[in-house]
Amino acid sequence: MPDRDEGGAGKHPRRRGQGELEAQVLAALRRTPGPATAAQVRERLGGDLAHTTVVTILTRLHAKGAVGRERAGRSFQWTARADEAGLAALRMRKVLEAEADRGAVLASFVTALSPGDERTLRDLLARTADETED
What we know:
Helix content is about 55%, strand content about 10%. It has helices at about 20-30, 40-45, 50-65, 85-95, 100-110, 115-134; strands at about 65-70, 75-80.
């Protein structure tokens, strides 16, 4: 396999983390003014990915509700509906929905938070509660 890493011989390209490619595609789509084709998104990404890979990622993001699409001839034009934080929240909800004991998952999640993140979560929950009371 050819070496694509400039760091030296024998090294392999860095493997993307789970969800990293989705976040990159979503960010590229958000930087595009108005709806964009997969080719335009690919161009924004630097063109290193295959067109089919970009279409696959956009289709996955569409299934998650993070992007919208409208037919444009034989293909689609895509529009971002979520930002990177929204995409992460969608992934978190998907994991939560896959578990039978949601309370146990949430309890485990909360107990693993740093004190600062826990305060932020408490503040957000309090703010949400205040907004629903109005």
